[in-house]
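Deliverable D2.4 — example input (C-alpha cells):
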C-alpha cells in the first residue's frame, strides 16, 4: 500500500501490486521482482502494477531499460482496449492508505509561510484561478462583469495579475470570448451534460462542438460516474478519448466528481483512467456535489500525475474546485502541490483553482501584506 503519510523523499520505489504474479510499476522488473525506476526522480511512489504473467506485463518486462512508455502506445495501448484490460491496470495500482493520506494532508496544512513568500503565493494563486459562474440564472451581463474582473481583478492596483481563465456554460462562451479576446485570459466551458454526465455520447459531443465553435480554449468535461463505479472502464475511456478528439486544440480537463467516487482508491483509478485516455488536466469536482475538493483527494491526484509523468513522459495538470473560498485554503493547496507533485506544477499551466468567491479574499490578503491593514470586501468588485 502506498504510504502517502511520508514525504516524497522518504517513499521508496517498490510497491506490491494486487495481482498474484510478479509485479512491476513504472520501471523494468527483474526476475527477482525488483524494479528499476524510469523517469527523472528516484522518490516516486510506484504507479501501474502489472502482472508479468500477462501479455501486457511481458510487453513491459521485455522493453528497453529506463524507457518512458507513451500513454497512447506500447503496453498502455494494449491494455486500454477493453474493460478487462483496463481493470487489470487500474486494480493493479497500489492501494491508497487513507489514514496516511489524511495525516499527510493535515500535516502540510500546518506549514507557515513568511511575509515575502506569502505575497508571491497570493499572486500565484490569483494567476491560477478559473473564475467561474455556473448558475442557471447566469446572464450575458454577469459574464461580462466576470470577464472584466478576470482581466483586472483589482482596478485600484495594476500590479495584480489576471486570472487564468473564465469558466462558463457553453451558450455563454461567445460572450466571454468577445470580452476576453487578446487579453491572455482563457475561456473555459463545461460540457458533456454537466454536472451529471448522464447523456448519450452524441449529445455530449454536440455539447463540446458548440463550445469549441463558440471559441472555448478549454473544455471541462465530466465522466459518467455510474459507468465508472459499475466497472465499465472501457466506456469511460472511450468517452474521454472521443471528447478529446472533439475538443481539437482546446485543452481538456476531465472532472472526476470525487465526492461520488466513495474511496481514495477510486480517485486514484479514475485519475489514471482519465490520463490514459488523453486528459490534459484532471479535475476534482463540479462544485455541485458535496464533498467537493478536499486536501486528501488532491494529494492522491497530485501523486497520480507525478507518477504518470514518470511512467509515460507526459505531464498532466490538476484542477481543484468546489469549496475553496479563502486565501488560506488556496495557499494550503499550493503547499500540497509543491510537496507532492513538485515545483514544476506550480504554474497555471499545470495547476488551477476553480472558484467564484476566492479572488476577493486573495486581494484582501494581498492588501494586508502591502499596507498592514485589512480592506473589507466592499473595497473590491463583486465576483
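Example output (designed residues):
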Amino acid at each position: 500500500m502506498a504510504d502517502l503519510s511520508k514525504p516524497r523523499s522518504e517513499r521508496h520505489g517498490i510497491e506490491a501490486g494486487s495481482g498474484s504474479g510478479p509485479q512491476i510499476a513504472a520501471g523494468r522488473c527483474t526476475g527477482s521482482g525488483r524494479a528499476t525506476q524510469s523517469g527523472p526522480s528516484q522518490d516516486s511512489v510506484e504507479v501501474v502494477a502489472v502482472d508479468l504473467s500477462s501479455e501486457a506485463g511481458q510487453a513491459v518486462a521485455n522493453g528497453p531499460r529506463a524507457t518512458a512508455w507513451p500513454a497512447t502506445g506500447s503496453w498502455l495501448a494494449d491494455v486500454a482496449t477493453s474493460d478487462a484490460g483496463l481493470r487489470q491496470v487500474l486494480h493493479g495500482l497500489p492501494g491508497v492508505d487513507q489514514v496516511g493520506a489524511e495525516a499527510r494532508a493535515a500535516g502540510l496544512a500546518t506549514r507557515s509561510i513568511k511575509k515575502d513568500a506569502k505575497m508571491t503565493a497570493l499572486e500565484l494563486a490569483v494567476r491560477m484561478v478559473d473564475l467561474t459562474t455556473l448558475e442557471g440564472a447566469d446572464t450575458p451581463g454577469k459574464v461580462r462583469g466576470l470577464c472584466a474582473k478576470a482581466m483586472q481583478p483589482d482596478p485600484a492596483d495594476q500590479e495584480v495579475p489576471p486570472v487564468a481563465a473564465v469558466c462558463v456554460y457553453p451558450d455563454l462562451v461567445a460572450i466571454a470570448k468577445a470580452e476576453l479576446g487578446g487579453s491572455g485570459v482563457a475561456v473555459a466551458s463545461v460540457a458533456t451534460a454537466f454536472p451529471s454526465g448522464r447523456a448519450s455520447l452524441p449529445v455530449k459531443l454536440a455539447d463540446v462542438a458548440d463550445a469549441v465553435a463558440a471559441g472555448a480554449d478549454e473544455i471541462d468535461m465530466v465522466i459518467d460516474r455510474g459507468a465508472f463505479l459499475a466497472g465499465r472502464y472501457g466506456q469511460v475511456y472511450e468517452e474521454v478519448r472521443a471528447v478529446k478528439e472533439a475538443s481539437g486544440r482546446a485543452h481538456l480537463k476531465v472532472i472526476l466528481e470525487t465526492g461520488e467516487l466513495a474511496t481514495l482508491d477510486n480517485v486514484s483509478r479514475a485519475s489514471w483512467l482519465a490520463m490514459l485516455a488523453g486528459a490534459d488536466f484532471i479535475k476534482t469536482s463540479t462544485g455541485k456535489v458535496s464533498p467537493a475538493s478536499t486536501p486528501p483527494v488532491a494529494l492522491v491526484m497530485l501523486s497520480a500525475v507525478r507518477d504518470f509523468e514518470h511512467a509515460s513522459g507526459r505531464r498532466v495538470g490538476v484542477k481543484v474546485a468546489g469549496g475553496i473560498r479563502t486565501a488560506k485554503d488556496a495557499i494550503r493547496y499550493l503547499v500540497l502541490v509543491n510537496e507532492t507533485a513538485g515545483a514544476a506544477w506550480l504554474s497555471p499551466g499545470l495547476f488551477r483553482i476553480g472558484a467564484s468567491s476566492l479572488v476577493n479574499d486573495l486581494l484582501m490578503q494581498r492588501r494586508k501584506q502591502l499596507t498592514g491593514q485589512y480592506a473589507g470586501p466592499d473595497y473590491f468588485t463583486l465576483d
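Residues 102-379 form a domain with the TIM Barrel fold (CATH 3.20.20.70).
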